[in-house]
Amino acid sequence: MNEHVQAATTGPLFNPLAPEFIRDPYPHYARLRATDPMHQTAFGSFVASRHAEVSLALRDKRFGKDFAERTIRRYGPKSLEEPVFRSMSHWMLQKDPPDHARLRGLVVKAFTARRVEDMRPRIQQVVDETLDRIIPQGRMDLIEDFAFRLPVTIICDMLGIPEEQRELFYTGSRDGGRLLDPVPLSPEEIAKGNAGNLMAAMYFQQLFDLRRKQPGDDLITQLVQAEEDGSKLSNEELTANIILLFGAGHETTVNLIGNGLLALHRNPDQLALLKANPGLITNAIEEFLRYDSSVQLTGRVALEDIEDLGGKRIPKGENVLCLLGSANHDPAVYPDRPGSLDITRPNVRPLSFGGGIHFCLGAQLARIEAEIAIASLLRRLPDLRLDDAENPQWRPTFVLRGLKELPASW
């Protein structure tokens, strides 16, 4: 028995920031599903690990977000005075109706199927320009040099961030993922989150002023006009949701591309199959999402007493942590080797983009970006090899699962 499987059978049932858990959470999930599928953690939350309970909690109106109350319970009555938590309390991702519908309604037009499909040529152009620049070098970090640059460029396009200001975003930190983890933040981590939030807010306030004077055909212009209307959006909501859109608009896609490329190179038969049959790329993206989701968990709060969820009573106000990565490996839904990568797997419907009213706005954009990025890379660099596929460096966060780096050469 190798060390990480052994750790999965002997350690705490749910310890998401443990190195062995971050390295490979799936044996731990299998243990949860088998022994305590609605597990109550040391920090109070219930953890749903089976597909049935996760899917129900995501969609059932008896569950919501209730971010402010949740934060106060965890960090104390003055916690919402912390800039980072105050900002997060305005995210549409953390809102319940009717505020959720009002905020989401202001941005949903930018993510319609038609508008996203129309972005294909621009996405292809960014991928080709990136590869043109990198291929002569003979090596790269697939995360920083390739996967990161594409979605950052596209979300900058959508938000209307001027070209001359984008280098700041290409070289920016990717430390924000810890804010979403279920394990409480330390005072030092909260201070770091506050500093990052204040810097982002200062930058975007300047950009809002620019777009008030020089409107463009972009999402920030659209939201600034909604803010000026007064009844639709406050300045705090505007700032918070632009920060959310920028983070959500690239972080998960970087991880989808990186995790997908790692999975392919760890499964040479699937890599060869995709190279031989490029038309499989659309189904392959769904399988990458299922096999090693770039978002492992999303939370809900019981808005009333729930008498039975997976055999447990969930009192009003209790958190339910929905393990998307575990649900995607549940043999009740994927009976044929759920722990294996199979890019021809039929009926793949991963929960990686969430569900219900909070289903990810950018799901289709992320799929198209990953599809074009991975297909172009395999076509243009057929002899690409990873320098160390067996011991990759994972980022020390749990909810957003992604690699620190993925060195490759050709």
What keyword list fits this structure?
five-stranded mixed beta sheet; alpha+beta; globular; disordered N terminus; Cytochrome p450
Describe this structure in words.
- The protein is α+β, with helices and mostly antiparallel strands and 410 residues long.
- The chain has 20 helices and twelve strands.
- The strands form four sheets. Strands 1-2-8-5-3 form a five-stranded mixed sheet, sandwiched between helices.
- Helix 9 crosses helix 11 (149-159), helix 13 crosses helix 15 and helix 16 (251-266) crosses helix 18 (281-291).
- The longest helix has 27 residues, at 187-213.
- The two termini are 34 Å apart.
Summarize the helices and strands and which ones pair or pack.
Blueprint: H1 3-10, H2 19-23, H3 26-35, E1 38-40, E2 46-48, H4 51-59, E3 63-64, H5 67-75, H6 83-88, H7 99-107, H8 113-117, H9 120-134, E4 139-141, H10 142-147, H11 149-159, H12 167-170, H13 187-213, H14 219-229, H15 235-248, H16 251-266, H17 268-276, H18 281-291, E5 297-302, E6 306-309, E7 312-314, E8 319-323, H19 324-327, H20 363-380, E9 385-386, E10 393-394, E11 403-405, E12 407-409
Helix pairs in contact: 1-3, 9-11, 9-20, 13-14, 13-15, 16-18, 16-20, 18-20
- Summarize the amount of helix as a percent range: 40-55%
Low-confidence stretches: 1-7
Biggest beta-sheet profile:
5 strands, mixed
Care to count the β-strands? 12
Question: What's the CATH H-level superfamily name?
Answer: Cytochrome P450
Say what oligomer this is: single chain
Total separate domains = 1
CATH class: Mainly Alpha
Nearest-integer average pLDDT: 93
As a whole number of angstroms, the C-alpha radius of gyration is: 21 Å
Secondary structure class reads: alpha+beta
Q: CATH topology, which one?
A: Cytochrome p450
- What is the strand arrangement across the widest sheet? 1-2-8-5-3
Distance between the termini: 34 Å
Characterize the overall form. globular
CATH architecture: Orthogonal Bundle
Number of helices in the DSSP assignment: 20
Strand content: 5-15%
